Amino acid sequence: MGADQYNITSAALGFTPEFMKAYKGTLLEPTEPTPTEFSAPEFFNFDIVACSMSLHHFDDPVYAMQQLAKRARPDGGVFIMIDNTKAPAHMEVHKMYQQATGHGAHTAMGYAEEEMKKYYEGADAAADFEYVALERGPEIDMGGHKWDMQIFISKGRRGE
């Protein structure tokens, strides 16, 4: 769903743009680390910045985490990441599923605790770092092949 459709749906549900609004843009272009469309004060100092099931799509996960984490309050804002701990057993099937559904390209398919800790440190958000691998994640059907996803939730806090 694009930003325009999100905003139409939000309005239809009775939410005002002041309460809920989507914006379209990128924070991930190294040549423009603070894009004009996201440079206003309302795009900084969030209590929580969360990113779910997208880290494996970023070309440069370290840069992505740096860009996202700096949107959290510098005096203790929390940064949360949710993603895969490991790749599916049927990676070739997953690649076919990805192509058939338009699911974005992957740069990695799993992150261990040590790797995520380094990413949080690089993003200046490693205070109170935690990484929890869920015992059981969702089961995904990819063209008749089942993938029991292995999911983690990690969090850190920007230093004070």
| CATH 4th-level superfamily | Vaccinia Virus protein VP39
What would the principal axes of the Cα set say about the shape?
A: globular
Helix content: 25-40%
- What oligomeric state do the depicted chains represent? single chain
CATH architecture level-2 label = 3-Layer(aba) Sandwich
In brief, what are we looking at here?
The protein has helices spanning 3-12, 61-69, 91-101, 113-122; strands at 48-52, 78-84, 127-133, 139-142, 145-148, 151-157.
Describe the structure.
The protein has 4 helices and 6 strands. It has 160 residues and is of the alpha+beta class. The protein has one domain: 3-Layer(aba) Sandwich (Rossmann fold), CATH 3.40.50. The strands form 2 sheets. Strands 1-2-6-3 form a 4-stranded mixed beta sheet, covered by helices on one side. A two-stranded antiparallel sheet has the order 4-5. Strand 4 and strand 5 (145-148) form a beta hairpin. The protein is globular and about 45 Å long. The mean pLDDT is 85.
How are the SSEs ordered, and which strands pair?
Blueprint: H1 3-12, E1 48-52, H2 61-69, E2 78-84, H3 91-101, H4 113-122, E3 127-133, E4 139-142, E5 145-148, E6 151-157
Parallel strand pairs: 1-2
Antiparallel strand pairs: 2-6, 3-6, 4-5
